[in-house]
Amino acid sequence: MAPVKVFGPAMSTNVTRVLVCLEEVGAEYEVVHLDYQAKEHKSPPFGQIPAFQDGDVVLFESRAIARYVLRKYKSADADLLREGNLKEVAMVDVWTEVEAHQYYPAISPVVYECLINPIMRGVPTNQKAVDEALEKFRKVLDIYEARLSKSTYLAGDFLSFADLNHFTYTYYFMATPHAAVFDSYPHVKGWWERIMSRPYVKKLAANMLIKAP
Protein backbone atom coordinates (compact mmCIF):
# COMPACT_ATOMS: atom_id res chain seq x y z
CA MET A 1 0.00 0.00 0.00
CA ALA A 2 1.43 3.37 -1.04
CA PRO A 3 1.94 5.89 1.75
CA VAL A 4 -0.52 8.74 2.00
CA LYS A 5 0.80 12.19 1.15
CA VAL A 6 0.61 15.35 3.24
CA PHE A 7 1.37 18.56 1.35
CA GLY A 8 2.96 21.38 3.32
CA PRO A 9 5.87 22.08 5.69
CA ALA A 10 6.15 19.81 8.72
CA MET A 11 6.60 22.86 10.97
CA SER A 12 3.15 24.23 10.03
CA THR A 13 0.61 24.12 12.84
CA ASN A 14 -2.12 22.62 10.68
CA VAL A 15 0.20 20.15 8.95
CA THR A 16 1.43 18.92 12.32
CA ARG A 17 -2.17 18.40 13.46
CA VAL A 18 -2.41 15.77 10.71
CA LEU A 19 1.05 14.30 11.28
CA VAL A 20 0.48 13.72 14.99
CA CYS A 21 -2.56 11.58 14.11
CA LEU A 22 -0.68 9.66 11.42
CA GLU A 23 2.08 8.93 13.92
CA GLU A 24 -0.37 7.84 16.62
CA VAL A 25 -1.95 5.23 14.35
CA GLY A 26 1.37 4.12 12.85
CA ALA A 27 0.46 4.96 9.24
CA GLU A 28 2.99 5.32 6.46
CA TYR A 29 3.06 8.85 5.08
CA GLU A 30 5.12 11.21 2.96
CA VAL A 31 5.41 14.94 3.58
CA VAL A 32 5.55 16.77 0.25
CA HIS A 33 7.29 20.14 0.52
CA LEU A 34 5.67 23.05 -1.30
CA ASP A 35 7.61 26.03 -2.61
CA TYR A 36 6.18 29.09 -0.88
CA GLN A 37 8.07 31.54 -3.07
CA ALA A 38 6.54 29.92 -6.14
CA LYS A 39 3.16 30.00 -4.34
CA GLU A 40 2.64 26.27 -4.92
CA HIS A 41 0.48 26.18 -1.77
CA LYS A 42 -1.98 28.52 -3.55
CA SER A 43 -2.18 26.46 -6.73
CA PRO A 44 -4.88 23.90 -7.60
CA PRO A 45 -5.66 21.38 -6.26
CA PHE A 46 -4.35 22.81 -2.99
CA GLY A 47 -5.34 26.40 -2.33
CA GLN A 48 -4.32 25.99 1.29
CA ILE A 49 -2.23 23.75 3.50
CA PRO A 50 -2.31 21.05 4.44
CA ALA A 51 -3.64 19.12 1.52
CA PHE A 52 -3.86 15.35 1.76
CA GLN A 53 -3.90 12.59 -0.82
CA ASP A 54 -4.73 8.93 -0.37
CA GLY A 55 -4.99 7.43 -3.84
CA ASP A 56 -7.87 9.26 -5.51
CA VAL A 57 -9.01 10.83 -2.24
CA VAL A 58 -7.89 14.45 -1.92
CA LEU A 59 -8.81 16.39 1.22
CA PHE A 60 -8.39 19.81 2.78
CA GLU A 61 -8.94 21.21 6.30
CA SER A 62 -6.64 19.72 8.90
CA ARG A 63 -9.32 18.56 11.35
CA ALA A 64 -11.24 16.78 8.59
CA ILE A 65 -8.03 15.15 7.32
CA ALA A 66 -7.18 14.02 10.85
CA ARG A 67 -10.58 12.39 11.30
CA TYR A 68 -10.19 10.57 7.97
CA VAL A 69 -6.81 9.24 9.10
CA LEU A 70 -8.14 8.10 12.48
CA ARG A 71 -11.09 6.31 10.86
CA LYS A 72 -9.03 4.61 8.16
CA TYR A 73 -6.34 3.34 10.52
CA LYS A 74 -8.54 2.64 13.53
CA SER A 75 -7.50 -0.40 15.54
CA ALA A 76 -7.99 -1.83 19.00
CA ASP A 77 -4.82 0.01 20.04
CA ALA A 78 -5.57 3.22 18.15
CA ASP A 79 -9.21 4.23 18.51
CA LEU A 80 -9.02 7.98 18.99
CA LEU A 81 -12.53 8.92 17.85
CA ARG A 82 -14.34 6.30 19.99
CA GLU A 83 -17.18 6.10 17.49
CA GLY A 84 -18.29 2.71 18.79
CA ASN A 85 -19.37 4.26 22.10
CA LEU A 86 -22.08 6.93 21.95
CA LYS A 87 -21.09 8.65 25.20
CA GLU A 88 -17.36 8.59 24.51
CA VAL A 89 -17.62 9.87 20.95
CA ALA A 90 -19.88 12.66 22.18
CA MET A 91 -17.21 13.78 24.63
CA VAL A 92 -14.51 13.58 21.95
CA ASP A 93 -16.70 15.75 19.73
CA VAL A 94 -17.41 18.25 22.52
CA TRP A 95 -13.76 18.83 23.38
CA THR A 96 -12.74 18.91 19.73
CA GLU A 97 -15.25 21.73 19.27
CA VAL A 98 -13.99 23.46 22.42
CA GLU A 99 -10.48 23.42 20.98
CA ALA A 100 -11.65 24.92 17.69
CA HIS A 101 -13.92 27.61 19.12
CA GLN A 102 -12.45 28.47 22.54
CA TYR A 103 -8.89 27.21 23.01
CA TYR A 104 -7.48 27.96 19.56
CA PRO A 105 -8.85 31.52 19.28
CA ALA A 106 -7.37 32.36 22.69
CA ILE A 107 -3.94 30.75 22.34
CA SER A 108 -3.15 31.47 18.69
CA PRO A 109 -2.71 35.27 18.98
CA VAL A 110 0.02 34.71 21.58
CA VAL A 111 1.82 32.28 19.27
CA TYR A 112 1.52 34.59 16.28
CA GLU A 113 2.55 37.72 18.14
CA CYS A 114 5.44 36.18 20.07
CA LEU A 115 6.83 33.72 17.51
CA ILE A 116 5.43 33.74 13.99
CA ASN A 117 5.24 37.49 13.37
CA PRO A 118 8.69 38.44 14.70
CA ILE A 119 10.54 35.34 13.46
CA MET A 120 8.94 34.66 10.08
CA ARG A 121 7.54 38.05 9.12
CA GLY A 122 9.85 40.51 10.83
CA VAL A 123 6.88 42.17 12.53
CA PRO A 124 7.36 43.27 16.16
CA THR A 125 5.17 41.79 18.88
CA ASN A 126 1.96 43.65 19.66
CA GLN A 127 2.01 43.36 23.44
CA LYS A 128 -1.52 44.70 23.83
CA ALA A 129 -2.84 41.89 21.62
CA VAL A 130 -0.83 39.38 23.64
CA ASP A 131 -2.17 40.67 26.96
CA GLU A 132 -5.77 40.57 25.72
CA ALA A 133 -5.31 37.04 24.40
CA LEU A 134 -3.73 35.84 27.64
CA GLU A 135 -6.68 37.17 29.63
CA LYS A 136 -9.03 35.12 27.44
CA PHE A 137 -6.73 32.11 27.53
CA ARG A 138 -6.65 32.02 31.33
CA LYS A 139 -10.46 31.85 31.37
CA VAL A 140 -10.33 28.92 28.96
CA LEU A 141 -7.71 27.21 31.11
CA ASP A 142 -9.99 27.59 34.14
CA ILE A 143 -12.49 25.38 32.32
CA TYR A 144 -9.81 22.89 31.29
CA GLU A 145 -8.46 22.71 34.82
CA ALA A 146 -11.92 21.84 36.15
CA ARG A 147 -12.39 19.18 33.49
CA LEU A 148 -8.95 17.62 33.90
CA SER A 149 -9.34 17.45 37.67
CA LYS A 150 -12.01 14.81 36.97
CA SER A 151 -10.46 12.82 34.12
CA THR A 152 -6.99 11.96 32.83
CA TYR A 153 -7.71 13.32 29.36
CA LEU A 154 -10.32 15.70 27.98
CA ALA A 155 -12.90 13.17 26.78
CA GLY A 156 -12.33 10.75 29.65
CA ASP A 157 -9.62 8.44 30.98
CA PHE A 158 -8.37 7.70 27.47
CA LEU A 159 -6.29 9.59 24.93
CA SER A 160 -8.36 10.84 22.00
CA PHE A 161 -8.32 13.15 19.01
CA ALA A 162 -9.60 15.86 21.33
CA ASP A 163 -6.23 15.80 23.12
CA LEU A 164 -3.97 15.44 20.07
CA ASN A 165 -5.80 18.35 18.46
CA HIS A 166 -4.18 20.67 21.02
CA PHE A 167 -0.59 19.63 20.35
CA THR A 168 0.80 22.15 17.88
CA TYR A 169 -0.40 25.45 19.29
CA THR A 170 0.28 24.39 22.87
CA TYR A 171 3.79 23.31 21.91
CA TYR A 172 4.51 26.67 20.31
CA PHE A 173 2.92 28.51 23.22
CA MET A 174 5.42 26.78 25.50
CA ALA A 175 8.21 28.38 23.46
CA THR A 176 6.87 31.89 24.16
CA PRO A 177 7.75 33.98 27.23
CA HIS A 178 4.33 33.07 28.67
CA ALA A 179 4.75 29.31 29.18
CA ALA A 180 4.64 29.79 32.96
CA VAL A 181 0.90 30.47 32.67
CA PHE A 182 0.45 26.69 32.80
CA ASP A 183 2.05 26.56 36.26
CA SER A 184 -1.18 27.94 37.72
CA TYR A 185 -3.14 24.99 36.30
CA PRO A 186 -1.56 21.78 37.66
CA HIS A 187 -4.06 19.39 36.07
CA VAL A 188 -3.69 21.08 32.68
CA LYS A 189 0.09 21.00 33.02
CA GLY A 190 0.01 17.30 33.90
CA TRP A 191 -2.20 16.59 30.89
CA TRP A 192 0.21 18.45 28.64
CA GLU A 193 3.19 16.56 30.06
CA ARG A 194 1.42 13.25 29.35
CA ILE A 195 0.94 14.28 25.71
CA MET A 196 4.55 15.43 25.39
CA SER A 197 5.84 12.15 26.83
CA ARG A 198 4.65 10.15 23.82
CA PRO A 199 7.67 9.13 21.67
CA TYR A 200 6.20 10.23 18.35
CA VAL A 201 5.36 13.65 19.77
CA LYS A 202 9.03 14.12 20.62
CA LYS A 203 9.88 13.04 17.06
CA LEU A 204 7.57 15.64 15.53
CA ALA A 205 8.74 18.33 17.92
CA ALA A 206 12.24 17.99 16.45
CA ASN A 207 10.90 19.41 13.16
CA MET A 208 9.04 22.34 14.67
CA LEU A 209 9.92 25.95 13.97
CA ILE A 210 10.86 26.71 17.57
CA LYS A 211 12.10 24.25 20.17
CA ALA A 212 10.04 24.51 23.34
CA PRO A 213 11.72 23.64 26.67
From TrEMBL:
One of its GO terms (biological process) is response to herbicide. SUPFAM superfamilies: GST C-terminal domain-like, Thioredoxin-like. One of its GO terms (cellular component) is cytoplasm. It holds the Pfam family GST_N. InterPro entries: Glutathione-S-Trfase_C-like, Glutathione-S-Trfase_C_sf, Glutathione_S-Trfase, Glutathione_S-Trfase_N, GST_C, GST_Phi_C, Thioredoxin-like_sf. Gene3D superfamilies: 1.20.1050.10, Glutaredoxin. It catalyses: RX + glutathione = an S-substituted glutathione + a halide anion + H(+). The keyword Transferase applies. PROSITE patterns: GST_CTER, GST_NTER. Its EC number is 2.5.1.18. One of its GO terms (molecular function) is glutathione binding. Residues 2-77 form the GST N-terminal domain. Residues 85-213 form the GST C-terminal domain. Keywords: Transferase. The keyword Cytoplasm does not apply. Belongs to the GST superfamily. Phi family. This is glutathione transferase.
